[in-house]
């Protein structure tokens, strides 16, 4: 089970690296391994995620701390993943810093959300109606991670979702790695499209 989950997460990491979504060792990824007790594999802190090594991930528990002896440290933002796994049935969490998601989070930061509509790609979120609306909440970026995790948790109510952290990045989750990656790609499509649209409008 653990090896299978490792491989799944490694594949997602490889694909996101190909998209160049891990600038300057940023970003963190995780995948649930077991429910009782809750354990998940999460990216180790400070690694270049474009490289593949046997130390890319470590197993952590429901408190976000290593579940077994290791010299590796979990990503600093593992507490955000903890909130998702403790509150929902999500199976995979992906967090990336991109220029497009940062620009959108700054532009709409004061509004507290960005709203997308009339976009074919929001069908990726299971929204099929012609006038469907997809909202991504935007929270302020706070350096104190437990505080950030608390603010973040207010927007974690479903087994799938997305939250932007202002001038920081996006966190997306879904029932499994396939779904989480699909959501992340759709979010990045929307952010990238919207940045370009704003440029033309000015
Ligand atoms: Zn981050």
From TrEMBL:
SMART domains: Aldolase_II. GO terms for cellular component: cytoplasm. Pfam families: Aldolase_II. Binds 1 zinc ion per subunit. One of its GO terms (biological process) is L-methionine salvage from methylthioadenosine. HAMAP family: Salvage_MtnB (MF_01677). It is an enzyme of class 4 (lyase). This is Methylthioribulose-1-phosphate dehydratase. Zn(2+) binds at residues 95, 97. Keywords: Amino-acid biosynthesis, Lyase, Metal-binding, Methionine biosynthesis, Zinc. Catalyzes the dehydration of methylthioribulose-1-phosphate (MTRu-1-P) into 2,3-diketo-5-methylthiopentyl-1-phosphate (DK-MTP-1-P).
């Amino acid at each position: 089970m653990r090896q299978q989950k490792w491989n799944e997460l490694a594949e997602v990491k490889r694909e996101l690296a190909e998209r160049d979504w891990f600038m300057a060792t940023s970003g963190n990824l995780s995948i649930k391994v077991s429910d009782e007790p809750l354990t998940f594999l999460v990216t180790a802190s400070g690694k270049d995620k474009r490289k593949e090594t046997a130390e890319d991930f470590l197993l952590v528990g429901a408190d976000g701390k290593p579940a077994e002896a290791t010299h590796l440290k979990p990503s600093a933002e593992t507490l955000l993943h903890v909130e998702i796994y403790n509150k929902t049935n999500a199976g995979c969490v992906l967090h990336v810093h991109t220029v497009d998601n940062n620009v959108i989070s700054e532009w709409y930061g004061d509004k507290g959300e960005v709203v997308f509509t009339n976009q074919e790609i929001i069908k990726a979120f299971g929204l099929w109606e012609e006038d469907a609306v997809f909202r991504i909440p935007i929270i302020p970026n706070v350096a104190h991670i437990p505080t950030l995790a608390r603010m973040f948790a207010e927007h974690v109510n479903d087994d799938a979702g997305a939250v932007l952290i202002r001038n920081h990045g996006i966190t997306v989750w879904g029932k499994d790695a396939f779904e989480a990656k699909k959501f992340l790609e759709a979010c990045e499509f929307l952010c990238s499209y919207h940045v370009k649209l704003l440029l033309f409008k000015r």
